[in-house]
Amino acid sequence: MEDKRLERSFVMIKPDGVQRGLIGDVISRFEKRGYKLIALKMSSPTKEHIESHYEDLKAKKFFPDLVAYMLMGPVIAMVWQGTAVVSTGRKIVGATNPLDSLPGTVRGDFCIETGRNIIHASDAVESAEKEIKLWFTETEVKSSDTLAPETGGKTG
Ligand code: DAT
Ligand code: MG
Q1: CA 39, CA 132: separation in Å to the nearest integer?
Q2: Is 49 one of the catalytic residues?
Q3: What is the predicted pLDDT for the residue at 82?
Q4: CA of 130 to the centre of ligand 2 (A)
Q5: The pLDDT value given to residue 144
């Protein structure tokens, strides 16, 4: 039976991905797979914001390096929507350690260091919803939905 899990995932191009000019490639992969981009912004988050985003990892030894890395430049924050986009998005992105990421994945094609792995994608539906709330207002996420082809582009 067809999988009808309509989900949203928070996907973020990290500062090195932005600096290396990989924004278009990443967006293209999600678009071509069939997912819908429902929110996007370039953001220069505060240290506190990054610490909240990665709060589950704050006890890890690498946490200070991770936070410093994420503050090296602007990031591209996005919300993608579609069937099983959380688990499929993780597959598109590849393993956390790029040396374990298969060729054909974003990390498997573009990087070799865990500490410079260029992209984030939510790991569960629950964390996705939490991350979307942290990075976007409800209006920012909802407004693009009014331009969806299925509404005929009507905004009112
Ligand atoms: P993912 O980004 O695949 O969801 P994660 O949530 O476990 O992985 O960790 C978040 C980020 O923290 C990860 O993308 C890179 C960094 N990181 C994770 N494990 C690390 C490690 N062992 N050494 C250095 N950085 C690490
Ligand atoms: Mg994670």
Answers
A1: 10
A2: no
A3: 97
A4: 12
A5: 63
